[in-house]
């Protein structure tokens, strides 16, 4: 799954579109049709968002996209202030 942690001993990620399903002896397998090199399709922690970068602006409405970003950032708590009068 995109964005998921990779297994500890893994060194690359194969994209789903680069595999095909194969059935042999009543079992289902995948065949990698496009080889990958070590480190391929792996993003390093902090690669996409830099320290100090504004990701969510103050006053923004929290929708599913914002909620997903908060989860991605590992935020478990959020300070919300109601400024409506």
Describe the structure in your own words.
A hairpin with a 2-residue loop joins strand 1 and strand 2. The protein is elongated and about 70 Å long. 11% of the residues lie in helices and 14% in strands. The chain has a two-stranded antiparallel ribbon with strand order 1-2. By secondary structure, the chain is an alpha+beta fold. The chain has 1 helix and 2 strands.
Briefly, what is this?
With 85 residues, the chain is of the alpha+beta class.
Mean pLDDT: 86
Helix content: 10-25%
Series of secondary-structure elements, N-terminal to C-terminal: EEH
Q: What profile does the largest beta sheet have?
A: 2 strands, antiparallel
Strand order in space, largest sheet: 1-2
Radius of gyration: 20 Å
Keywords:
two-stranded antiparallel ribbon, 11% helix, 1 helix, 85 residues, alpha+beta
Topology diagram in text:
Elements: E1 19-24, E2 27-32, H1 64-72
């Amino acid at each position: 799954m995109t964005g998921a942690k990779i297994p500890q001993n893994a060194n690359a990620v194969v994209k789903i579109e680069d595999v095909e399903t194969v059935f042999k002896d009543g079992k289902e397998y995948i065949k990698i049709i496009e080889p990958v090199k070590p480190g391929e399709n792996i993003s390093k922690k902090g690669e996409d968002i830099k320290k100090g970068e504004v990701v969510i602006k103050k006053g923004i409405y929290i929708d599913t996209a914002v909620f997903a970003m908060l989860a991605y950032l590992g935020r478990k708590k959020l300070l919300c202030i109601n400024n409506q009068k």
